[in-house]
Amino acid sequence: MKQSIRIILLLVSLATITTIKAQQTQPSKDSVIQLFGVVMTADSLRGVPSASVVVLGKGRGTITNNDGIFSIAVLKGDRIMFSSIGFKEKIIDIPTNLTDNQYSVIQLLVNDTTYLPATILKPRPSREQFERDFVNTRVPDDAYEIARQNTNEAARRILLATLPADGKEAVNYQLRQQATKAYYAGQTAPMNILNPFAWADFIKAWKRGDFKSKQ
């Protein structure tokens, strides 16, 4: 009997602790504050459009309108960050001792000045200067050798014969074959042995050495 009473008291205690923690984690209606105001430049007092108003650590926020005006629901004690491109960030804390459910601010943002390295502007070179520099430019020997290899006719023929066709070439070849088959459906396809253009291509390929054995 005593053991049953102890178990019941333990369950009641756990339920009470869980209820208290839930009440602590959930904000009460009195802690919700309507934050509104305007974000302006500190030097000219102009509204900053599309400025970010973010509640830090909560993943919530809003942006100002074209006049820099904003409005967002926050909690007492929240930290609010104001930021915009070209201005320094500003963070404020919502007071915890507010008696009203509204809080207005006029937030001024200071320009964030970025100093870039000096840029030297030179006049456009004349045609004579360009030709002189182009002719006197030294090109490494390896670049010359790569250019010779890329323009070598024998190397290009070897690459053409050995490299496999990619997907686009294979599909185009298959489509051409299907088109030819559909075009000559129901009749005898012409033979290239009687085609003078095919003979001309064959003679050119034979002169180039395309039919020689590659070792």
What does the model show?
The protein has 215 residues and is α+β, with helices and mostly antiparallel strands. The chain has two domains: 27-109, Carboxypeptidase-like, regulatory domain (Immunoglobulin-like), CATH 2.60.40.1120; 127-203, no CATH class. It is 40% helix and 20% strand. It is built from six helices and seven strands. It has helices at 2-25, 127-136, 141-151, 153-162, 167-183, 196-208; strands at residues 32-41, 52-55, 60-63, 69-75, 79-83, 90-93, 102-109. The chain has a four-stranded antiparallel β-sheet with strand order 3-2-5-6, with no helix packed on it. Strands 4-1-7 form a three-stranded mixed β-sheet, with no helix packed on it. It is elongated. The model has no long low-confidence stretch (mean pLDDT 81).
Which stretches of 5+ consecutive residues score pLDDT under 50?
none
**Overall 3D geometry?**
elongated
Here the CATH topology of the largest domain equals Immunoglobulin-like
Order of helices and strands: HEEEEEEEHHHHH
Please give the CATH class of the largest domain.
Mainly Beta
Q: Spatial order of the strands in the main sheet?
A: 3-2-5-6
Helical fraction equals 25-40%
Amino-to-carboxy terminus distance: 100 Å
Largest sheet entry: 4 strands, antiparallel
In total, how many beta strands?
7
